[in-house]
Amino acid sequence: MSPAVFSHGDLRLYLLSLLAEAPQHGYGIIQALTDRTGGTYTPSAGTIYPRLAKLEEEGLVTKTVDGRTTIYSITDAGRAELASREDDLAGIEDGLADSVRLIANEVRQSVQEAMKSLRADLAAAAQDDRKAAGSTPPRAPGYDDERVIARENLARADASINAFRARVRSDLRTHVARGGALPTQVVTELESAMDAAAHAVTNALAGLPGH
């Protein structure tokens, strides 16, 4: 399970810190939280607006309506609370950084395990093909056409690649849709792992008859 991004009460203080930088409308606050957490946390409107309303009740936040947009601003009382809780805010910032790193590690490990499994399957398939090539007696012309077998195996390989692609793509999209982070480093490692798998296939084919 991914670690919680904000502990109880931390989001309230973090909202004050965002508004201390500049007045914001609700969507802007949600976007700022998404950006600050590297996509780890994308809160819903149902999470943000009740907290803003509570901060307003406490006199820490005020709002003004500009057409259809409601702009929230921090009050002097809100700034005073922020100043009195600087250490708490620093702890929240550290916690956010830790959460992003932990979730990035989870994605990275998942990708690495998937690529390791693919390389193992490819190596086993290549080994089986070498054994079959060495043990199969010569056949009469036209019997069990090797080109038919090759096409069948190519179809199997295509299906395996497509299944892998669909699995990884689904995992990545689901992770991001749930608010998970997807750092550039993870994508770079995925690209490197796929490149390594492609080289493994090339090397396996190089050792087969007819290559």
Automatic annotation (TrEMBL):
What InterPro entries does the database record attribute to this sequence? ArsR-like_HTH, Tscrpt_reg_PadR_N, WH-like_DNA-bd_sf, WH_DNA-bd_sf
Membrane spanning stretches: none
Record-linked PANTHER family: TRANSCRIPTIONAL REGULATOR YQJI
Transcription regulator PadR N-terminal domain location: 15-83
What this protein is called in its record is: PadR family transcriptional regulator
Name the CDD domains on file.
Answer: HTH_ARSR
A Pfam family (short name) is PadR
